[in-house]
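From the pipeline queue, job 12 of 40. The input is one protein chain; the requested action is below.

Action: predict structure.
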Amino acid sequence: MWKLMGGLLALPVLLVLPVLLVLSVLMIFWGSGDYVRTVQLNWELELPASEGCLYETDSGASFSGDGERYHVLAYADDSGLEETLTEEATPVRSAEVPVTEILDLLAVPADQRPDFSDCRGFTAAHPTDERNRLYLLVNSAGTRLYVVECFF
């Protein structure tokens, strides 16, 4: 009889644990409220916290996890964003062609796209899959960060 009761008591515990795990993961993402946290998790970059997301879109969820994401983040003048990018990421001469291709796929409106003549471009290697691409474009004032991600 004790064996049966012990098994019955273990069942609710086993059901609650996965639910708690899922809730804690969701709280991490919802609680951050800042896409910078996602960039840190995906690309291992320590960017300053943004003042908020001005625009975002993605290609939608897929079974294999591939797809594209685009975010425009706002920053304060004194955020140190450009200095951080110089330390954390790799400068690229021009990201206009690959970024434009991705933005076209996502149907991003012209007013939400970066002005390439006013931006410096950066990239970073993905820690687990070199096929994945990240482009970071910061405007000359250091107040806008355009984040373009492509996962394969």
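Job complete. Residues 2-32 form the longest helix (31 residues).
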